[in-house]
Design goal:
globular, 12 helices, 7-stranded parallel beta sheet, Rossmann fold, UDP-galactose 4-epimerase, domain 1, alpha/beta, two-stranded parallel ribbon, 2 domains, about 40% helix
Amino acid sequence: MDNALVIGGTRFIGRHLVSDLLDNDYDVTIFNRGNHDNPFSDDPRVQHIQGDRTDDEALRTAKLTVEPDAVFDCVAYKPGEVATAVDIFADVDAYVYISSGAAYGVEEVPKREGVTTLCECTDEQATDDSHDSYGPRKAEGDRVVFEAASRGINAMSVRPCIVYGPHDYTERLDYWIDRVLNYDRIVVPGDGTNIWHRAYVEDVASAMRVVAEEGEAGEAYNVGDRRLVTLEEMVDVIADAVGTDVEVVHAGERELAASGLSPDDFILYRDYPHVLSTEKLARLGWESTPVDEAMRRSVESHRESDRDGSEHDPGRDAEERVLSILDTL
């Protein structure tokens, strides 16, 4: 395979995917609406076709124009979109759909492909745009991929957990980087040992390519850092990348509540561990970036951007009240 069509391709995962494909000698075309700045607009190696992925004719035109060997679907958020895509691209060598670790419907440690139950998805959820239906929609997209493979279509999916790294418009990690850059004492909810598996974005990009090249039709592959870190360890890794020392201060529900906060007010906190097995993907030859290096690159990107994660900020005044309470105990 050497000719790739990326549906999306300019914001976060898709942007890194395009770079990874170029680094591996693919001819790349991106297909999107053009609503966001195109970081590859001056790169003659990347062609751009403007169109809406919900427009079936536009997708067919892109397919006929590019004649891709591999299609990477970065912006399929509803199962109907996946169903259309697998039919339009039924004869390509690989169709890779970005699903999500949120597709799993039960809490297990770790969550394994083909073992852990997926979310159910009602007809109403399948066409809904809410956050609550995100996991069910992604799970139903997986089932569309599995059914397509049963018809001989070379469709497969990847399931990343929380994705972080350069150009992350969600700014979830940026909140914690900003805290480490600006404060000596960092409030961490609970005892700091909670785990929400994360995946470095460049590794998600390489996983998509590896799955296209080496994966099996009808299979899903989890993507996540091969080394898991707790929330407190994540803060420590950020501090190391920044080159500073911070004091992590644990705050329980009672101390947080006294300042009008709860553990869930802190982004990337999750009460029950969310851990994905990545062994299946690793068997294809995929490797992950060491967490220390991934965080160093993420911190560099943060410093070069205007991202501060402020939309996730529980309020430093409230945190200071929590610190004052804890200092008196």
